[in-house]
Design a protein that fits this description.
The protein has two domains: 230 residues, no CATH class; 129 residues, no CATH class. 31% of the residues lie in helices and 24% in strands. The protein is built from twelve helices and 16 strands. It has an eight-stranded mixed sheet with strand order 3-2-8-9-10-11-1-12, sandwiched between helices. It has a four-stranded antiparallel sheet with strand order 7-6-14-13, with no helix packed on it. Strands 4-5 form a two-stranded antiparallel sheet.
């Protein structure tokens, strides 16, 4: 069945039945819900836990929940959490070892049974992020087995974007607001005089099978038109955009730019941008032991290129300045990521802008670098959208 084919319409009861059906299959359903003053991703028992009637207001370094009169469930921007929290968890035990009475060490590899996830409400930018993490963690020579196992069983339900935020720039990165691929089902929420409903598109055989077991009605032209119009309108209301140039070349030609000193004076090197980013994947390992020394464990945990120890070699850190660390993050994300993984590492979700304590804006920094090069007569050529 073509991915772009509109197959059905769900009402709120149908959406709840979808969650119940997935849970009955033994899946852990994860979706957006309101908690601690933000829209976060958490396990859902039913669709009533979705953030109906809540939106968000975001700006650089700012995030606020705001009530909505229309009762929409997916009319909010991406929150502080991304789906990598579940597919690539912050901490994961790799193995443990115990010393017996005879002094012999027994090493036990951790092989926990992985949950079968169903992700509800995945934005198109986050679909792209998952695809990027698939290449990083499930492809190539250095594969993460835990990620592979969690990802293999994941059922993805996209929610097309109809309410972009002021920090969103997915259009300029070619990753939204429409979901084109990578999903099992895709929803577009419509709230108008004809009611509150969700247009559903099928993206896989597994998606078709799940939809068949959920109460729905055939898609009608009015709903299809309304859904298409809502997504098109979102495309025209993006809050930000990357400069329309070859970002890969821009990063490569800006390594000695004065702008890095400007951003370094503001950057706290806290690593919030890497923690919130849906594609940042770096990890380190640490060993812990009990007081007796007879039991030890190795854990894998997230790491950040903003950490001084991240680039530590014998004798000290290679990137000791905030200038060098911010430059490493941004030039890798927009530039050298291509050499490693054949794509940009940025999907335009805007999390790094909203959750930066001092409001550093990656689109503003890219534009400033471009302007500085232009002043020196080395302006990069205009490029196509990132892929």
């Amino acid at each position: 069945m073509p991915v772009s084919h509109a197959t059905a319409v769900l009402d709120r009861n149908g959406l709840n039945a979808l969650v119940k059906t997935l849970a009955a299959q033994g899946r852990t359903v994860i979706g957006p819900t309101v908690r601690d003053g933000a829209v976060v991703l958490a396990e859902l028992a039913g669709a009533d836990q979705l953030p109906f009637g809540w939106g968000t207001r975001v700006e650089a370094g700012q995030y606020r929940l705001v009530p909505r009169e229309d009762g929409a469930a997916f009319a909010h921007t991406t929150g502080p959490k991304s789906w990598k929290t579940f597919l690539h968890p912050q901490r994961e035990k790799l193995w443990s070892t115990d010393r017996g009475p005879d002094g012999h060490l027994t090493v036990t590899e951790e092989r926990p049974e992985q949950p079968s996830y169903a992700f509800l409400g995945v934005r198109p930018c986050d679909l792209r992020a998952i695809a990027i993490q698939d290449r990083v963690l499930a492809g190539g020579h250095y594969q993460d087995r835990g990620y592979q196992e969690r990802r293999a069983g994941a059922f993805l339900i996209a929610a097309q974007c109809t309410e972009p935020g002021a920090t969103c720039f997915c259009v300029s990165m070619g990753s939204g607001p429409a979901a084109d691929e990578g999903f099992d089902l895709a929803l577009t929420e419509i709230v108008d005089e004809s009611g509150h409903r969700f247009l559903v598109r099928v993206g896989s055989e597994a998606g078709a099978e799940v939809l068949a077991g959920v109460p729905h009605r055939p898609a009608d032209p009015e709903t299809e038109t309304a859904a298409r119009g809502a997504v098109d309108a979102a495309r025209d209301r993006m809050g930000r955009a990357m400069p329309p140039v070859d970002l890969r070349r821009l990063m490569g030609e800006s390594l000695e730019a004065d702008r890095w000193d400007d951003v370094a004076a503001r950057c706290l090197t806290c690593g919030n941008c890497t923690m919130a980013c849906p594609t940042c994947f770096c990890t380190t390992t640490e060993e812990v032991t009990d007081l007796t020394g007879d039991h030890a464990e190795r854990w894998q945990r997230w790491d950040s290129c903003f950490d001084l120890d991240f680039s530590y070699l014998h004798g000290g850190s290679v990137r000791s300045s905030s200038r060098s660390r911010y430059r490493q993050w941004m030039t890798h994300k927009l530039g050298t990521w291509h050499e490693q993984f054949d794509s940009s590492g940025c999907v335009g979700c805007g999390r790094c802008i909203a959750w930066c304590p001092v409001g550093i804006d990656i689109t503003e920094e890219a534009a400033a670098l471009h302007d500085e090069l232009a002043e020196h007569g080395t302006e990069p050529e205009r490029g196509e959208k990132e892929r």
